[in-house]
Design goal:
heterodimer, A: 292 residues, 2 domains, 76% helix, globular, B: 243 residues, alpha/beta, 7 helices
Chain lengths: 292, 243
């Protein structure tokens, strides 16, 4: 490309102004009244739910059976504003979070590795897939005895339950993502005689990221469920949210029980939101989501 | 100097479809040869065979496969790379030093008129700009043979004319051997030094037209009486000579 007279340069066509504007994935500021429209409906519904809750506590249940559903202010008072109870729940939250994150980390590393191996060798994919489906279909309850035989009733077994529950979406989504690279892009790499590793690193893996994040967000929520289910069954060692749920239920401590349920859900929500945020950070610049 | 030669080339797909039959022609450096034909006649198959993406079943192809520029039907940019990163891709896959590929990419980007868009992602570019980024990418390795697989079929008329001129500019600067596929007669006559007409499946060459106009060609050439006459002949051959 030498010796081109710059004056023969053809005029660049102007960029399509609509292309950059509406599809850049940037968040457009919503008008004020539509902000109210987004926030008000769930807020109102929340008030309705609180109303029904009070109704059940005070009208439907007679006072002797009120422990079945303590009214909201009691839950706040006893579960959240009594430091002894709250500190116990927060400590449970810490241990559950640890189990969930450990399990999720193992699921990610193991799941992505398995998916990469499957994407590289059709034989592996064919051989592994039925077993993965089988593994996915096992009810955790059914293998609780086996897990406790093999791994004891402590933290290891909880992490294992976490991995069993959360690994499947990561494998399936990563594999799907790796296999969905554009055939033209593959041709492009073939023409440059790119090797398998280069193709994986520069084409298949980055292309798989959107699907991987979709799987990751599902798995993140599942890992929290896995941790709590695991603690429910494998109670030896540190006291997580799962054991607390069991304890409060046994002692008929309804306020603490509901507070623990709320904290458990909040953990799931936080983890889910975190991965949504991470997704926007990592691929938001280039990925054109049709739902955003 | 002959850069690309087909000799008695035939292609039958495993399912029995006969795509190409007895294709023979050569493309020299400094020649821009366009193959026009009805859709489904095996034009793209010809390019895939030339580049080695597909193995032919009879005859022979002579070309240096290590050094081919290939422009696809779509821009085929990697969406997670900026314009510059996309343009640098081929040099990167060939393990050229970073400074070297950066310089080549910058030169190619300037040549297709995308300066100022180096850091844009494909999703924020128009179709025509994506195609120009794709052209720039194929330019970086300065290949002596360039294959174009109906690259401008999906863009509007005005953008297509811009891209035709862009390609012409590339051709004049690089003096490569160009093999261009299209089903637009106007585009074929405007761009080429020679136009080959291919029949419907199985694809055979049925006519050949040397195009005498000097380079650089101006967009006004499209309204020249001689241009209209040649286009008419190509069109006639394309319809099988019995219109």
């Amino acid at each position: 490309m030498t010796g081109v007279d710059p004056t023969t340069q053809f005029i660049a066509e102007p960029p399509d102004p609509t292309a950059a504007d509406t599809t850049a994935g940037g968040v457009r500021r919503l008008p004020r009244e539509s902000w109210a429209r987004t926030v008000l409906p769930p807020l109102l519904l929340g008030l309705v739910i609180l109303g029904i809750w009070y109704l059940i506590s005070f009208v439907v249940l007679d006072p002797r059976r009120r422990f079945l559903l303590e009214p909201p202010h009691e839950v706040l008072q006893v579960g959240f504003f009594t430091w002894d109870n709250l500190s116990t729940i927060l400590e449970g939250l810490y241990w559950s979070t640890r189990v969930a994150l450990t399990g999720l980390a193992i699921s990610i590393v193991l799941g992505v590795t398995i998916a990469v191996i499957m994407s590289q060798t059709v034989i592996f994919e064919r051989a592994l897939f039925p077993y993965l489906v089988f593994l996915q279909a096992i009810p955790i309850l059914a293998i609780v005895p086996l897990i406790s035989f093999w791994f004891g009733t402590g933290e290891n077994s909880r992490v294992l339950v976490c991995v069993l529950i959360s690994i499947f979406p990561i494998i399936v989504n990563t594999l799907f993502g790796l296999q969905s690279a554009d055939p033209l892009h593959h041709d492009l790499f073939t023409l440059q005689q790119a090797n398998r590793w280069t193709r994986l690193r520069k084409l298949m893996f980055p292309g798989a990221l959107p699907a991987m994040f979709a799987g990751l967000r599902i798995s993140a929520g599942l890992s929290v469920i896995g941790a709590i289910v695991g603690e429910f069954f494998f109670g030896r060692g540190e006291t997580g949210l799962g054991q607390l749920l069991k304890r409060y239920a046994n002692r008929l401590e309804g306020e603490q029980l509901i507070a623990t349920v709320i904290i458990s859900s909040a953990l799931g929500v936080v983890v889910f939101l975190f991965f949504g945020w991470l997704q926007r950070r990592v691929i938001g610049k280039w990925y054109q989501s049709t739902t955003q | 100097m002959t850069a690309l030669a087909f000799q008695g080339l035939g292609m039958v797909f495993p399912d029995g479809t006969e795509a190409l039959d007895d294709i023979s022609f050569t493309v020299d450096r400094g020649e821009f040869v366009t193959v026009v034909g009805p859709s489904g006649c095996g034009k793209s198959t010809l390019l895939r065979i030339a580049s080695g993406l597909l193995q032919h079943t009879s005859g022979s192809v002579e070309v240096d496969r290590d050094d081919i520029g290939y422009v696809f039907q779509e821009a085929a940019l990697l969406p997670w790379r900026t314009v510059r990163q996309n343009v640098e891709l081929l040099a990167e896959l060939r393990n050229l030093p970073k400074g070297d590929r950066r310089a080549k990419a910058q030169q190619a980007i300037e040549m297709v008129g995308l300066s100022g868009f180096e850091h844009h992602y494909p999703k924020s570019l128009s179709g025509g700009m994506r195609m120009r980024a794709s052209l720039a990418r194929s330019l970086t390795l300065e290949p002596p043979v360039f294959l174009f697989d109906e690259p401008f079929g999906a863009v509007d008329e005005i953008t297509r004319e811009h891209l035709n001129d862009q390609t012409q500019l590339m051709f004049m600067a690089e003096n490569f051997a160009g093999l261009f596929i299209t089903h637009s007669i106007g585009e074929a006559v405007y761009m080429s030094t020679r136009v080959l007409v291919m029949s419907a499946r199985p694809g055979r060459l049925v006519a050949e037209f040397p195009i005498p106009f000097e380079f650089p060609r101006s967009p006004d050439l499209r309204f020249d009486p001689e241009f209209a006459r040649i286009s008419g002949e190509v069109s006639h051959a394309l319809r099988g000579g019995h219109a």
